[in-house]
Design brief:
The complex is a heterotrimer of chains A (about 260), B (about 325) and C (about 350).
Chain A: E1 5-14, E2 17-27, E3 32-36, H1 43-49, E4 60-68, E5 71-72, H2 80-86, E6 87-90, H3 102-113, H4 119-132, H5 136-139, H6 152-165, E7 170-174, H7 182-195, E8 200-204, H8 208-214, E9 217-223, E10 230-237, H9 238-243, H10 248-254
Parallel strand pairs in A: 2-10, 3-8, 3-9, 6-7, 7-8
Antiparallel strand pairs in A: 1-2, 1-4, 4-5, 9-10
Chain B: H1 7-10, H2 19-60, H3 72-108, H4 111-126, H5 129-154, H6 172-196, H7 200-208, H8 213-242, H9 245-250, H10 270-277, H11 284-320
Chain C: H1 28-46, H2 51-74, H3 76-110, H4 116-120, H5 134-165, H6 168-182, H7 186-201, H8 208-233, H9 236-244, H10 249-277, H11 281-286, H12 305-314, H13 320-351
Helix pairs in contact in C: 1-2, 2-3, 3-13, 5-8, 5-10, 5-12, 6-8, 7-8, 8-10, 9-10, 10-13, 12-13
The chains are: A alpha/beta (about 260), B mainly alpha (about 325), C mainly alpha (about 350).
Chain lengths: ~260, ~325, ~350
């Protein structure tokens, strides 16, 4: 199920502005990869280029290659819609569809492909996805209630359930805990630990303890100044990066000496 | 609402230096502003009051004194029907088109073009209704006539197309189309605004699930904009109900109640009837016309109020969620 | 969890990656559209040519072709997406059609009659051809100007009241009533003005000032709304800075708030004038119609451009062509006036608008 991602010589532009420059990395399957770095270093932009979500912004474009199992996502014939079904995403702030119930939210992605999906089969998927997101016990009695009634942490787990319901190969998380309290954050971190046996997970985080806790590998991005593109400084096993970083910039950032 | 409190209240001890002149100035100015607000209330009350007072003679008059020798209810009934019928046709045409145009501008056109296109549609709103009337009668009616003739020959078993077919094209269908064109800009503007306000997060949630553009619209844009679309439709309906000149010019009036869309004998509308009859009326006939105006006022008032209620309910919903 | 459904396959059981699963090339919609245009044109030429037939047939052909081809190649979801895209584009074309037709018709019919003589003569003693709109232009300017003179102070002061004095329950009532006023049909405003003036001048009253009052009823809510919006854009810091200098509130409003918002206020008023200048119905009722120049809004009937255009159409005289010509030319003059006002409003807001410092 989980797939390897190979990124080579990736440059990301907004119009004439180069936001991310010359990134090459390999993201291993069945593991959590954390992207860390100061604000504006392009890590979120980079993350969004992994499922072609950055194209939503006008004038954004990409040069280079992102391959999942050898298949380049940016080949002209590739359909971005198909890419996004393959690479799920969880956003900074929980974003369940406000007019849909909990059940409908989880089923939303499935309904797109299989409009006749109904009844027991669909209920099974919804239950499995909610269980997968550690949310089932909390919502099983109110599946038909609006999702907006849930707490922030529950909503975020609902979004994770919605993302895994369509069985993606990869799960991207863009600072999934930044809007949550510590207890909800812990619940999501536990969940990531469970999910990595089945998915390739890439997470952007500002919280270095979180990166150290949840990830197997860590990539450090930074910018050399305003108007400069973000670059990948180094990438390695998480304990390695945090205890013996190879670059001075990484060490400065991790130890809090950065800006 | 966020205006800070007057400094005379907030400023602690008032020094003798600034007190008299400033406070008098403040009081006069505040009084003027307040007076203007009150004047608006008085004005609206005046509109309602004058209409009611001037209507009374018509409502109490015997049917023989009224135009057409009918009781007032029988006089205004067909007119009210015509008003509602023409407005309904207009809304039926304008609603889907304006939703489509709003979507085109907000989600389908290239972003750089969107502003220009929106302005182009807004220009339609600036065209005076008498020009729409001329255009409707000299351009649109002849263009639609062959189509209506075709409907009359082939679909005459449907009551809407029962015929006889108007030779000039000045039917209630044509009037409805003109009205649709006239209410299109306002409806498009409201829909466009609300579609553009769809939270980016909700659109991205749909995109990240692998939704196509239409699926994004269906899952996030339309649910978000639903009440806005409803209130846009209500406001458009209010406009169509009250529009006068275009209908007065385009419609060939036969009186009576009929759902026939293509005949030369059409029910008139309240507003058009007033515009056409008023200059030649005197005595109780004027009162009768004013009374029909009162009926129109009440109808549009109710429609506008319903629109507002929809918007208000949406606000509650948003705060609740 | 053990019951694996076809919808949710077990890990490893997923089919190999297929990101490129059928997609039409980029030029496909444009190409198919061109082909539909051509095919429809052929059909039209074989039978009998008709612009609407061509348009409708092209639309039908295109929709059928793109949805079926897309369904074959890309599946039902993409095919639905393409169908909706076609519908949305069609809606836009449909909305553009009347705009273009209207501009074209007014220009084609109106320009021939738009001479210097047309602008500088009245209809006094004119039977048949000749005559002009001078008195109607003057009447329109007088009636609309007087309406602006009534509406702007009331509207602006009300907006100031709502923004600067907020005013609790009265403020809420005023806001609500302004909303209600925006929905008053113009003909009802005309009836109101008639009923009001009848009290003072007796039945059958017709005068320019009555028209101004009717237009004011339509104009005031517009002025209030736009001024309110503009005043609210003035940052609170500016007011506070002024208060901190010990300047009285009313002077702050007059010397600081209004000058800051003046461009927006002017734009709003100009647009409000543009909106009511084309009103016909209320003026037909209370300002009436006359063939000669009348520059006194408080006595006798006064012709305005929209009413002129309407009556030239409704009673064109004989032969009717001359009357119709006058109607179209008057309509053109009216549209030019409205567009001019819109242009002024745009220019004012562009060149005198607040510069957000950067």
């Amino acid at each position: 199920m989980a797939k390897r991602i190979d990124v080579s010589d990736l440059n990301i532009f907004y119009g004439d502005f180069r936001a991310v420059a010359d990134v090459s990395m390999t993201i291993e399957p069945r593991s959590v990869t954390a992207l860390i770095g100061p604000s504006g270093c392009g890590k979120s932009t980079f993350l969004r280029s992994l499922n072609r979500m950055h194209e939503v912004i006008p004038k954004a474009r990409v040069e280079g290659k992102v391959a999942i199992d050898g298949q380049d996502l940016y080949e002209p014939a590739v359909d971005p819609v198909a890419v996004r079904r393959l690479v799920g995403m969880v956003f900074q702030r929980p974003n369940p569809f406000p007019t849909m119930s909990i059940h409908e939210n989880v089923a939303a992605g499935l309904r797109l492909n299989n409009r006749k999906a109904k009844g027991d089969a669909l209920d099974d998927v919804v239950e499995r996805s909610l269980r997968g997101a550690n949310l089932w016990d909390e919502v099983k009695d109110r599946l038909d209630r609006p999702a907006s009634g849930l707490s922030g942490g529950q909503q975020q787990r609902l979004c994770i359930a919605r993302a895994i319901a369509i069985e993606p190969q990869v799960l991207l998380m863009d600072e999934p805990c930044s809007a949550l309290d510590p207890i909800s954050t812990l619940a999501i971190e536990d969940l990531m630990h469970d999910l990595k046996s089945r998915y390739t997970i890439v997470i952007v985080t500002h919280n270095m303890q979180q990166a150290a806790r949840v990830s197997d590998r860590t990539a450090f991005f930074t910018i050399s100044g305003a108007g400069q593109p973000g670059r990948l400084i180094e990438m390695g096993e998480t304990p390695e990066i945090f205890s013996r970083p190879g670059e001075k910039a990484t060490e400065d950032y991790i130890t809090g000496r950065f800006g | 609402m966020s205006a800070p409190a007057a400094p005379t209240i907030a400023g602690g001890p008032v020094t003798p230096l600034d007190a008299p002149s400033h406070r008098r100035g403040d009081r006069i100015f505040a009084g003027l502003a307040r007076g203007a607000g009150v004047l608006i209330l008085v004005l609206l009350a005046g509109v309602a009051l004058f209409l009611v007072v001037e209507s009374v003679p018509a409502l109490t008059a015997s049917s023989s004194e009224l135009p057409q020798g009918k009781s007032f209810a029988h006089y205004v009934g067909p007119l009210a029907f015509g008003t509602a019928f023409a407005a309904a046709i207009a809304l039926l045409i304008a609603a889907p088109v304006s939703i489509g145009v709003a979507l085109f501008i907000s989600h389908y056109s290239p972003r750089r073009l969107a502003g220009v296109l929106g302005y182009l549609i807004d220009l339609l709103a600036a065209v005076p209704s008498v020009v729409f009337g001329l255009w409707g009668i000299f351009w649109l009616a002849p263009q639609l006539q062959p189509g209506m003739a075709w409907l009359g020959t082939h679909l005459s078993f449907i009551p809407f197309f029962a015929g006889p077919v108007s030779a000039t094209g000045r039917t209630i269908l044509t009037a409805g189309v003109v009205l649709a064109v006239m209410i299109l800009p306002i409806m498009t503007a409201i829909c466009r605004e609300i579609f553009l306000q769809t939270p980016r997060l909700h659109e991205e949630a749909a995109l990240a699930l692998g939704a196509t553009r239409w699926e994004v619209v269906r899952m996030s844009v339309l649910p978000h904009g639903r009440s806005g679309v409803i209130s846009a439709a209500m406001l458009g309906l209010g406009r169509a109900l009250g529009e006068t000149m275009a209908v007065a010019m385009v419609l060939s009036v036969g009186g009576g109640v009929s759902v026939n869309l293509i005949s030369p004998q059409n029910p008139s509308t309240i507003a058009a009837n007033i515009a056409l009859q008023f200059p030649e009326s005197s005595g109780v006939a004027v009162n009768a016309l004013i009374a029909t105006g009162l009926v129109l006022f009440v109808i549009t008032f109710l429609v506008n109020f319903a629109a507002r209620a929809v918007v208000a309910r949406r606000k509650d919903f948003r705060e609740g969620s | 969890m053990a019951t694996a459904t076809p919808l949710l396959a077990e890990p490893g059981a997923s089919p190999p990656l297929r990101l490129t699963r059928g997609s039409l090339p980029r030029w496909a919609p444009a190409g198919m559209f061109a082909a539909s245009l051509g095919a429809a044109l052929l059909v039209m030429l074989v039978t009998s040519f008709n612009w609407y037939g061509w348009g409708a047939l092209t639309f039908l052909l295109y929709v059928v072709v793109i949805t079926t081809v897309s369904r074959r190649v890309e599946g039902s979801r993409r095919s639905t997406d393409r169908l909706v895209t076609a519908l949305v584009f069609t809606a836009f074309a449909l909305a553009l059609l009347p705009l273009l037709a209207l501009v074209w018709t007014v220009l084609r019919r109106g320009v021939p009659g738009l001479t210097f003589e047309f602008l500088t003569t009245t209809m006094r003693g004119v039977i048949g051809a000749g005559g002009g709109v001078e008195h109607a232009i003057v009447g329109t300017l007088l009636v609309t100007g007087l309406a602006a003179l009534i509406s702007v102070p009331i509207g602006l002061l009300t907006a100031i009241y709502l923004v600067e004095y907020s005013g609790g329950r009265l403020g809420r009532w005023v806001t609500l009533m302004v909303d209600v006023m925006t929905g008053i049909p113009s003909i009802v405003a005309g009836l109101f003005a008639y009923a009001l003036f009848e009290i003072f001048f007796g039945p059958g009253v017709r005068m320019g000032a009555a028209g101004s009052v009717a237009l004011s009823v339509l104009m005031i809510p517009f002025v209030v709304r736009s001024s309110e919006e503009m005043l609210r854009l003035v940052p609170a810091e500016l007011r506070e800075a002024s208060y901190a200098l010990g300047i009285a509130k009313w002077r702050t409003v007059v010397k600081v708030v209004i000058p800051t918002a003046i461009a927006g206020l002017t734009t709003g008023v100009t647009l409000a004038v543009a909106r009511v200048i084309g009103e016909t119905a209320p003026l037909l009722l209370v300002a009436g119609l006359t063939t000669s120049m009348n520059t006194d809004p408080f006595h006798d009937r006064m012709t305005t451009l929209p009413v002129y255009a309407f009556s030239a159409f409704a009673t064109p005289g004989f032969p009717p062509e001359a009357g119709y010509q006058r109607a179209w030319s008057a309509a053109l003059v009216l549209i030019i006036l409205v567009m001019l006002l819109n242009l002024i409003a745009r220019l004012v807001s562009r060149f005198f608008g607040p510069r957000t410092g950067r």
